[in-house]
Design goal:
By secondary structure, the protein is an alpha/beta fold. It has 11 helices and 13 strands. Strand 11 and strand 12 form a beta hairpin. The two termini are 35 Å apart. The structure holds adenosine-5'-triphosphate. Adenosine-5'-triphosphate binds next to helix 1.
Length: 305
């Protein structure tokens, strides 16, 4: 593959465990200076893909380039320039929080100011607590700080907001936005659709080890931007209602309905008339912008993985 101007360039990546293709010919480009969010159901292959980029797993097939480097062959160079926050923190447990951050900072030529970073992520109040005794959210924040302390050009954040309280989540989002403004490339895996929608320049949806949709959040949602949901008595004749509306109708749980397709002012009026003609009282009706979560569920289905 020729040298890549992208932060991350993956072509035809495959990774198989126990004869099962976990990553199955995946192509992904994360552009420099952008936030790329990788979404997908549990077990879709996100962490496996990201760990191939971090040099923590070796691909079975395909190519991976990170800042133009091969993460397996050029692992030392990649480590210098790339920050990694792992899903399980990956931190030693017997060291004190700030001591660890200080220690990691000494491995880099031009580290960030440890005290300032600790303050930004609210680490100061438990600076002397050992990692083992930190709460899940505190450990997450420390893991993020260790990923950022070396001023990386590219950062991989695997579910950075998982288990964080709203205050910490906002602090993390602020930091990610600030990094992006200074030209850092960021690849984030997340299950929080609002996180992806508000932070990402580019969203990549992965399922069964392949990319099934990608684009800027606004572009992904532009083609079909309204949604209508309502509640009424259970077991309405969805087929008849769908025919009247000229749209899809799904009873997502007993008495809760979602209308899929173009939602116009006429849709609301036809729905109200259809219900009135059958003596059905609509309890709650709402129209709104289609969210990334709606799109995600449409693409990946509602069954549990
Ligand atoms: N070392 C391994 N040996 C065997 N199976 C593995 C190994 N690593 C991952 N898997 C399997 O690969 C699949 C994908 O895992 P992966 O962690 O990449 O998914 P994910 O998309 O990150 O999921 P989640 O959203 O739950 O974090 C899972 O079914 C997992 O059990």
């Amino acid at each position: 593959m020729p040298p890549s101007p992208a932060a991350v360039e993956i072509r035809g990546l495959t990774k198989t465990y126990d004869g099962r293709a976990i990553v199955d010919g995946l192509d992904l480009t994360a552009r420099r200076g952008e936030v790329t969010a990788v979404l997908g159901p549990n077990g879709a292959g996100k962490t496996t893909t990201v760990e191939c980029c971090e040099g923590l797993r070796t691909p079975d097939g395909g190519t991976v380039r990170v800042l133009g480097l091969d993460p397996v062959v050029d692992s030392a160079l990649v480590r210098e320039r790339v920050g990694v926050m792992l899903q399980d923190g990956g931190l030693p447990t017997s060291v004190r929080a700030l001591e660890m951050l200080r220690h990691v900072s000494t491995m880099y030529a031009d580290p960030r100011d440890v005290a300032e970073l600790a303050d930004r992520l609210g680490l100061t109040s438990f600076a002397r607590t050992t990692v083992r005794r930190l709460s899940g959210g505190q450990r997450q924040r420390l893991a993020l700080a260790t990923a950022l302390v070396g001023r990386p050009e590219l950062v991989f954040l695997d579910e950075p907001s998982a288990g964080l309280d709203p205050q910490s989540r906002h602090a993390v989002w602020e930091l990610v936005r600030e990094l992006r403004e200074t030209g850092v490339s960021i690849v984030i895996t997340t299950h929080l659709m609002d996180e992806a929608e508000s932070l990402a320049d580019h969203v990549v949806i992965v399922d069964h080890g392949r990319v099934i949709a990608e684009g800027a959040p606004a572009t992904l949602l532009a083609s079909d931007s309204s949604t209508l949901t309502f509640t009424a008595r259970p077991a309405l004749e969805a087929v008849s209602l769908a025919a009247a509306l000229g749209a899809g109708v799904e009873e997502t749980s007993p008495g809760s309905y979602t209308v899929t397709g173009a939602v116009t002012p006429a849709t609301v009026s036809i729905l109200a008339r259809w219900c009135a003609d059958r003596g059905v009282l609509v309890h709650r009706l709402s129209t709104g912008r289609r969210t990334l979560e709606d799109l995600f569920l449409d693409l990946t289905g509602r069954s549990l993985r």
